[in-house]
Amino acid sequence: MSTGPEPQGVDPLQFWDSLAARWSRKEISELSWQVRVEAREGFSALQDPLEGLLVVLEYCPEVMKSKGGSLGHCVLFEFQLWLKERPHLHLQQREPGARLRRLQVQALSLLTEKQPSFLEPLIDIYQLGSLERSVLLGHVGYLLHRGSYREAVLMSIKLKLQPDLDMEKVCIPLVLQDKLQLAEAFVSDYQDLQNRLVRLLDSWCSPGFDPSHLLSCYPGIPQFHQKSDRLAPKVLSKQVFRLMELYGVDPALCPNVVTQRRLASLRFLMYKRFVEKNMSEENWADHVQAAVGESVDLQVELIFMLVKHSGLDCAARWALRYRVPKDRLPFGVGVRRETILENLETECPAGTGEPWEPSEESRRTYYQLPVPMENVHFLDTAEGLRLCREAVLKPGVLLGMDMEWRPAFGSVGKPRVALIQLAVRDAVYLLDLMERGGPEQDQELRHFIRDVFSDPAVTKLGYGMAGDLSSLAATWPQFLEEPLKPAGILDLLPVHKQIQKAHVPLGVRGSRSVEGLKGSAEKGLSLLVQLVLGKPLDKTEQLSNWERRPLRPSQVYYAAVDAYCLLDVHRSLTQDPGRFGLAPDLSNALGGQQGKCEEKGTHRPRTRKAQDPCTDAEEEKPQPPPALPGVSREALSPQQFRVVCDNMLQGLGRYLRCVGVDVRMLDNADDHRRAAEIAREESRVILTCGLPFQTLKSQVGEGCCLAVDCSEKARDQALRVLKHFNITITPADIFSRCQVCNGDQYLKVPRQEMERLMKIRGLISAESRSRSESESADCDAPSQPRSLPYSPKCRWAAPSGLDPDSLQFPGGAPLQLDSVPPGILDKVSLFYCCTSCGKVFWEGSHFGRVISQFQEVLNISDGQTIYQHQ
């Protein structure tokens, strides 16, 4: 309040009473242009607008969540627009002193005690970051004490207070309430806090951890908010590994989850070796040693597993290898170890001298490499790389490509490529990435790989090449800084999918139809080779340790076959594509996208072409596949984008509907997995946040599940989603879809017809209507010019679609006339009625608000202008 001897200006309480009265009559809720002008004039009439604003907000009803439709948010939004036009009133223009600090403390107290949802605008308006750090920390501590953890985190992030707060005191309650993403936001940009958060979660994965004890330490968290199932070691370990990779945390800081993963890898290796029996002794031994490492506990676990699966002899040999203490060995293993000590070398042959030629049984069963051994070149020198360059980089060359890396049994991080295979018609070249030589040879190898991928004159055949490219980028950081630009790529994975969809008999070389192979154990490239060439691949060496040197002859043979078979498959498909249900031009199987790659398991959402507002919906047509990660996507319209929002993101869903996106939203009672079902059935992208992301991501294709930052406002979330998928908004997209029910068909009702319908329903009387018209004539309100007429991209219903007696649409939805304020009839000439839910809309200044909110992704063509209400 003013302290001058002669106060001037409007009393803030009087201003508040006027706003509250209008709000109660639903005038501000519709944001009519005249009222907005009056509100801004009210700010100008206050003697001290910054102090008067706090008085008004103090009397606003308390809103704990960020609801943009509340009176307080309405006042703040209009005040910020008003303040932008008057930079001389900004707080930094005032003289510092006690009065300035009093305003800041008053704003901070308003945030922590009554209106935490006003956080961001009040911090910006009153520059709360300039207050003493001890004062700010005290208010954050108050929020934590009363259980307002989300508000405390958002305030600390906005004011950069994280280093001075107790990480466990802030983050543990968030994790217990399934708000790990907020905890991640709290520790972002602070490496020490990130390490401490990951170590905290890892400690909860220890065998002796008791979740009930932890929950009892936080009685302030309501029982129904506690998510004890999220503390299960299996769930927590996934989050720990994700954060380890995200933050680059040293695995040594997380011994519990690393040990658990290695133990799980041991169990898997036992199953592959002794149950499925499809892993060789040498491959199995390589991976077992990598999984066990120097851990004595894991070595003991290995011995016990071997006793169960293989017997005392095998267990004793491994006990001897690791020198496991006798008191920790199972019964009988120690004695057996002593008896085989002298004969160990004869019982455990080194496995050298392995023949190159496959066995007769292998020849009968599997596809065989048609080039001799001398034409398979293992290259680990600069001279060998130059010979390969001369043979491969020739115009018109058809090149089969594949890559191998060590399976990630118990390891952390992305796999690194150990071998690249390049096959031409008469030779196969194996590029050794483990022995790169010095920096010059390493640079020459990178340049060669870049040249191969970018040369459009060389057709490169692969199978699921996006996965190979991702591993290649993990191998060389230079490919992340300057990504490869693939050209001339023909990925046979989508071709394989086309063949499976065709369901035609494949009478080539005795192969069977797709339907006849439903029970086959083959999959992936091996299945494609079997379908086209008649025999599958021998995948015995697939799980080899590809980092060992020298490679065994069987590994070299397998690597050469994996690349060369692509040439034979391509030749068979191009010779007679019709027998496989393909177009004559093989690249058509990719939808004309030769040169791009598809990630393994990619699932594409169906898209729709933009429709004329006055026509019915066109039939959906397949669209080109999305680009690779890191490659820019083509711009899409909102009508081509379909999503399903988790029940935690309903605000985001309404914003996306506001700009024309087709959005399905889960009900509060729906399980998160319902989003995956809808996404698969209707080809939608899932938008979620928090822990459900990991579960949902595994149930849909790559790129069809996006995690949203739950600490952001719904409007900012919507902007991020639109930018991520490169969705371009036009003014005609705004309000083209109903925010309530997602419908995209409207009925136009003129003012006279709306007035007639409301009179029939008894919502207005003839006397009140004539009085309203008289008042409107005396008001002489200014017009609302707009150079761009409102014409949304939607479907229009015929007037006959509304039943004249029941006022219901064909789907049964009644026309919601009671939501139309009688006073609005004087100001609006045309109403838009959703035929799906009956909600009535009309054009107001909210259109301009949305235009300003989505300006970053809005596309306005030359000659178009949007009137902005001041």
TrEMBL record:
Gene3D superfamilies: Ribonuclease H-like superfamily/Ribonuclease H
Chain residue ranges for the region called Disordered: 584-633, 768-791
Keyword Nuclease carried by entry: yes
Domain 3'-5' exonuclease: 376-578
UniProt-listed CDD domains: mut-7_like_exo (cd06146)
InterPro entries according to UniProt: 3'-5'_exonuclease_dom, Exonuclease_MUT-7-like, Mut-7_DEDDy_dom, Mut7-C_RNAse_dom, RNaseH-like_sf, RNaseH_sf
Keywords: Exonuclease, Hydrolase, Nuclease
Name the record gives this protein: Exonuclease mut-7-like protein isoform X2
